Amino acid sequence: MRHRYCSCCNRLGELLAHPSFQVKELALGTLMKFVQLEGAHPLEQPKWEGQYLFPRTLFRAVVGGLLSSEDDHSLLLSQFREYLEFDDIRYHTMQAASDAVTRVAAQQAETPLAFWNNAFTLLSSVSLPRQERDVPRFYVKHAEPSDKWKVAHLKEHRKVFQTMWLGFLKHKLAQPTLMIDFLTSACDVGGAISLLALNGLFVLIHKHNLEYPDFYRKLYGLLEPSVFHVKYRARFFHLADLFLSSSHLPAYLVAAFAKRLSRLALTAPPEALLMVLPFICNLLRRHPACRVLVHRPGSPELDTDPYDPQEEDPAKSRALESCLWEVQALQQHYHPEVSSAASVINQVLSLPEASIAPLLELTAYEIFEQDLKKKGPETVPLEFIPAQGLLGRRDDLCTQFFTLS
């Protein structure tokens, strides 16, 4: 009987690839009914009372049949979505899908596109509940559910959900251009999500000839005062340095970024200024046409700053008509290292760029610790004028009452 049952399950698994959708739908429904019955009446006796039992072997075969490498099972996967409402089916689907993606990617040098499409359809169908249910909803019925089972807790579902998507996304996509619509929509979310989306779009532009004219406009819009205080600050400026590394960018665009950063630097903390000021100098080194922001020979002095900080389009901000007076103002900064970094712009900028990598994750605590470790000179020269009198004259009236030593 066991042999006949296994042969039946194997035959139903083969029918998941049948040309007729009605046959595939009936095979899927029968297999899921077997999953429910085998879970309620396990073929193997539990090792201890209260053990969680689920027909993992049979269910992994079902998920493996859905993730076909030859046929498009999007319609069949839409039928399978109704089972994902059950907590146990959702939990084991995520585990089985993660194992299937790892196994297929390791066995085949070039994974077929049909498999990735089926895997993405299945993974996209999984959605976690926002809050944990008081009573878990199981497809496989159990006499006495236990709180010790991982499948009964939402936090365990979140762990498996994260593992599932990370395992899927680490593999090389067969057609990266399919991500264009997703990444362009993610650019409008804001914050770290927009930054990561721009990183993906930059790869598509650089390696797959994608045309996305709003790329630098989106990046320009992320330059806000809060960018110096967020957790992803180092990641942002690392990517911004990469995006602005090309020497073929127009001068007006680079000038807009340099001017926007200079304006934001007026209210930035010292640890951010020590990174932003070399960043601005590197932009001027890469693009000599932007050095008019520092020195504009033969031009009259500006009465007002023509730069428009409210303009969202860098091409219309009139940054190239302005100057970096903000950097000159920072030369009077209270922190001596910031003042020195701002004074570099007064000199002839050398061709080798200054590396900002060690400064990306600099914190205020590290600056304070560095200042404490600095050794001052052994003798400090002092200049003063000896007092001639209380009010500045030796023979004033106050000297009759007070003696100056």
Q: Distance N terminus to C terminus?
A: 115 Å
Which outline best applies? elongated
The averaged pLDDT comes out at: 86
Query: Approximately how much helix is present in the residues?
Result: 40-55%
Q: What is the tally of beta strands?
A: 0
Give the helix tally.
Answer: 16
Low-confidence stretches: none
Share of residues in strands: under 5%
User: Which oligomeric form is depicted?
Assistant: single chain
Describe this entry's structure for a reader.
This protein is an all-alpha fold and 405 residues long. It has two domains: 1-174, no CATH class; 213-379. Helix content is 49%, strand content 0%. The chain is built from 16 helices and no strands. It has helices spanning 2-14, 21-40, 56-66, 74-80, 87-107, 113-125, 154-169, 180-186, 191-208, 215-221, 233-243, 251-265, 270-286, 325-329, 336-343, 364-373. α3 crosses α5, α8 runs antiparallel to α9 and α13 (270-286) runs parallel beside α15. The chain is elongated.
Chart the SSEs and their pairings.
Blueprint: H1 2-14, H2 21-40, H3 56-66, H4 74-80, H5 87-107, H6 113-125, H7 154-169, H8 180-186, H9 191-208, H10 215-221, H11 233-243, H12 251-265, H13 270-286, H14 325-329, H15 336-343, H16 364-373
Helix pairs in contact: 3-5, 5-7, 8-9, 12-13, 13-15
